[in-house]
């Protein structure tokens, strides 16, 4: 029963980690150890089982579930516990590697970061970790005796787990040090933080040293067998999570290769027998009973459960389904330039030829109709990707970054499904505008769906605007990112208007690597169409890093860019604002927004010579700083755009609520890639949406699930033997309602 | 004549008050300054400055106010209405507009008129005599915003009714404010409907806002009836 409580402790570990009265607990450590020794004997019979069937896998599974990523079956434990002891060691070995990374990384990625700060931060982390570790251990032991106070909801699941392990206990005979194993649970848990676990082991405090000595026997074992680690951990959650991975039962039969789910609803599977495991010498401790199946990403259909966002379908018209993939494929030059970020990845897997094959496999697997790639290295594009993609039926548009970087963006579409109506390649380097001095690029395409009717292929409406970009990385330069984004939005706006001029609706898919995290200002701006930026720190725009500790950082002030850029603060080309508003040729029409933009132009602030001064009537002053009228002010420090956009991904994994990540390297994982689309809305958004968009727009019918950071680390991070980039591919399927032909 | 301003007070949109009885030559009695200004405008049409954004039409701002305390009878409508200035570009518009008090901050019984250059804000003007206006009554506090939206749409040619628009008026009254937009042909229902729809859109009006169309001939008749009654009773 104590074991059971231990498990329960684990589930509430995250709460307890933050417990503050560490000192009190320190004093009690020795007492705990005594308890531990007692437990050792109490659990003596269990240890036979644990010894023979090393429990690390079991432990590994527990922290994962603690993190809330998955729901575990009882079966899980049985399977998991057959795994080798090396899991944990590998885990720590791997995290150790990662831990070493941040300093050099930061130096490269943000050259202004001073090392002192960094090391200070690191040290702080270590201290916190050590403290947390002791806390964990104490709480674990403490609550072996006391009844843990927990919510019932989570426990239910784990009780199943525990029952199973208890059953096994009965079979097992005694040997080995059971307490040791138990003590290690919290340590492993600490490693869930994915950063500092090994530090703990290395920089043990006096207090924790004694605690850990017991477990040292295990932790000190060879930490370099990374292979085991990933096999165990990939196999483990995958096999166990019956909720997410639907086809587990069928999977058990196959042991000779890898199964991938393909297509909506996992209707098909791809079997990949070519995968061979590393030399068996790595696996001396692994029992061969574990089937090696991996189901790493799952297609999710969004028909029923997302009706709140989407219009209920009444399909009267012909519709067209198409799939879009956005993928930052990690340019080889950048990989080699930033080796430290990928130290966890074996060198052979860093080879372009290896990664290119994986990439093409992945593209084939999901067969997107439209492919938006970032970090496409120019020579690789011309030598490999373009020829191969052409063979696969894609028509490609490529735009290399300006400057010295060798990569760029590519948009490829299936020539049998879409016809190209217009192409704009955008370079964000505008030396005449001081802000836009960075060499990022984007592509905006206008495609027309192709419909086959009785041996005839013809274009049909509505058109589809596909935009792809890779915004500036620099976390401190949110201002540059916003300006680059504005150029993209202005081009998209122009494309939409060109369609409107023909009386046609235009749907939008806007994807790319935006180098900005969800729900922070740049993201909010895209999805809400509005951003009040006045006074915001520039680093906050993207939110990639919290730089608020810096003694000084830049803030945003209006105007973000000079009018000479030709883009308004409504993210429209100023030259177009006139044109598009005038209906009859020759009429000088101006939109409300355009008129307002000139409100405080220098010419408008001079009092007219012939204006008679009538007290109380003409004695006002255009004091721009005063801005007595709140709505005037609103227009001045607010950025807006008129493209109705929504993100395909919601940035948390369905079910578990864990954050999704789209990119991961040794510095950590986060979401920076997106597929935005113009959704079908039941009601037109009164202010922003185009008048004609009511009832039109794209219906999201499915997407390829992303993964959590923990899960990706369990695959040995990115890139790895399956995933060729440090980003994940984003894949979404849309339904487009065709106009009546 | 005596009770012209009484009639004005009762009239919905305020500014269409004209001095029916006063002959055109009464203009000559206007203050010299006014006269001079008008002459300048007549002689020299305003033109957009270099690099400015020209408007489709030139417009003129007018201002009128019922002078408190003075008997209305001694004033003509035209004497009470002042030209503020004319402009030909977006920039020039803002130059005037931003030196003028917002309608919501005006005191007393006042009106701003913004008419195409050459059209007087009077029923009898050739451009207006066959026309009419949409009238929207606003509770206090909305006039500044609505007025700005209205004139920005008018100057920016958002009504899409060709040359039909004559001008717009905001009338500040005691308990409410009234905005109206005048067009040339009251009988053109397609045009008036289009103006109404655009108004609803650009003013972002609540759905239950009452909009009323009134032809100028009706306005004249109503005023004359009232005036006649007054005259009859007043024994002019």
Automatic annotation (TrEMBL), chain A:
Molecular function via GO: 3'-5'-RNA exonuclease activity
A Pfam match: Exo_endo_phos
Domain Endonuclease/exonuclease/phosphatase per the UniProt entry, residue ranges: 325-727
Domain of life: Eukaryota
Gene3D superfamilies: Endonuclease/exonuclease/phosphatase
Transmembrane spans: 31-51
Organism: Xiphophorus maculatus (Southern platyfish)
Biased composition regions of type Polar residues, renumbered to the chain: 78-92
InterPro entries recorded: CCR4/nocturin_mRNA_transcr, Endo/exonu/phosph_ase_sf, Endo/exonuclease/phosphatase
Feature: compositional bias, Basic and acidic residues: 93-103
Keyword set, alphabetical order: Membrane, Transmembrane, Transmembrane helix
Region annotation (Disordered) ranges: 70-117, 190-222
Protein name: Angel homolog 1
TrEMBL record, chain B:
SUPFAM superfamilies: eIF4e-like
Organism domain of life: Eukaryota
UniProt KW keywords: Acetylation, Cytoplasm, Initiation factor, Isopeptide bond, Phosphoprotein, Protein biosynthesis, RNA-binding, RNA-mediated gene silencing, Translation regulation, Ubl conjugation
InterPro entries per UniProt: TIF_eIF4e-like, TIF_eIF_4E, TIF_eIF_4E_CS
Ranges where the record places region Disordered: 1-42
Keyword Protein biosynthesis: yes
Basic and acidic residues bias (residue ranges): 1-40
Gene Ontology cellular component list: eukaryotic translation initiation factor 4F complex; P-body
The keyword Membrane belongs to this UniProt entry's keyword annotation: no
Subcellular location field: Cytoplasm, P-body
Transmembrane segments: none
GO BP field: regulation of translation; regulatory ncRNA-mediated gene silencing
GO MF annotations, alphabetized: RNA 7-methylguanosine cap binding; translation initiation factor activity
Function recorded in the entry: Recognizes and binds the 7-methylguanosine-containing mRNA cap during an early step in the initiation. Acts as a repressor of translation initiation. In contrast to EIF4E, it is unable to bind eIF4G (EIF4G1, EIF4G2 or EIF4G3), suggesting that it acts by competing with EIF4E and block assembly of eIF4F at the cap. In P-bodies, component of a complex that promotes miRNA-mediated translational repression. Involved in virus-induced host response by mediating miRNA MIR34A-induced translational silencing which controls IFNB1 production by a negative feedback mechanism.
Family of this protein: Belongs to the eukaryotic initiation factor 4E family.
Quaternary structure note: Interacts with EIF4EBP1, EIF4EBP2 and EIF4EBP3. Does not interact with eIF4G (EIF4G1, EIF4G2 or EIF4G3). Component of the 4EHP-GYF2 complex, at least composed of EIF4E2, GIGYF2 and ZNF598. Interacts with GIGYF2 (via the 4EHP-binding motif); the interaction is direct. Interacts with EIF4ENIF1/4E-T (via YXXXXLphi motif); increasing affinity for the 7-methylguanosine-containing mRNA cap.
Protein name: Eukaryotic translation initiation factor 4E type 2
Organism: Xiphophorus maculatus
